[in-house]
Design goal:
With 163 residues, the protein is mainly β. The chain contains two helices and 13 strands; from the N terminus they run ββαβββββββαββββ. The protein has two domains: 3-63, Hepatocyte Growth Factor (3-Layer(bba) Sandwich); 67-156, Hepatocyte Growth Factor, CATH 3.50.4.10. The termini are close together. Residues 4-40, 78-112 form the Apple domain.
C-alpha cells in the first residue's frame, strides 16, 4: 500500500480499489495502475521497469500480460464470443495465427484449437480454467450490436498488487 508509479496517467475512473487491476487489464494500453484515496482508479502507461514510489496513501499495481511487442497474452482466460475462425494448432502458434490474419484482434487457445476473434479493444476478458487468451493492441474493431450478437462479457482478473 501507499504507493504510486508517478506520471504516465492515461485515464481516471471512479472505482472501488479491488476493481482497479481488472480495469487496467481491460485497457489495452494500461501497464500500471494506482487507486487513490479519492476513489479514482488511475490507469497508467509506463515502461515495465518504472520504479514504485512510496506516497503515504493509496495502492498500486501492474498487470502481468506477457508480451512479445506485437501481442499480449495470459493463461486461463477468454474473450467470449466474436469468433471468426478455429484452427487446430499448438498453443505457442495461436498468437502468430492471429497476427497473420488482418481481421483478427483477439485469440483463445483452448488446448486443441486456436480460436481467432474480431472484437474491439474494450472487450472484457473472462477468467476461465485452462488455455490462454491474447490480443493485438494495435488492432481495434467495432462490435456489431445487431440482434443476437452481444458483445458484453464479464471482466477478468490477473494483476499483481503491490502493498
Amino acid at each position: 500500500m501507499n504507493c504510486d508509479f508517478p506520471g504516465h496517467d492515461i485515464e481516471r475512473i471512479a472505482s472501488p480499489g479491488e476493481n482497479c487491476g481488472s480495469l487496467c487489464i481491460a485497457s489495452p494500453n494500461c501497464t500500471h495502475f494506482r487507486h487513490a484515496p479519492d476513489g479514482l482508479c488511475i490507469l497508467k502507461e509506463a515502461p515495465l521497469a518504472t520504479p514504485v514510489t512510496n506516497t503515504g496513501e493509496g495502492s498500486c499495481g501492474k498487470d502481468h500480460w506477457n508480451s512479445d511487442g506485437s501481442l499480449k497474452w495470459l493463461l486461463n482466460c477468454d474473450f467470449e464470443g466474436h469468433d471468426i475462425g478455429r484452427i487446430e494448432s499448438p498453443g505457442d502458434k495461436c498468437g502468430g495465427i492471429c497476427v497473420n490474419n488482418p481481421e483478427c484482434s483477439h485469440f483463445r487457445f483452448d488446448g486443441q484449437f486456436c480460436r481467432t476473434k474480431k472484437a474491439p479493444q474494450s472487450i472484457s476478458r473472462k477468467a476461465i480454467n485452462g488455455g490462454a487468451c491474447g490480443f493485438i493492441p494495435s488492432r481495434n474493431f467495432v462490435i456489431d450490436k445487431s440482434p443476437g450478437n452481444s458483445g458484453s462479457n464479464v471482466g477478468g482478473f490477473g494483476v499483481i498488487v503491490l502493498f
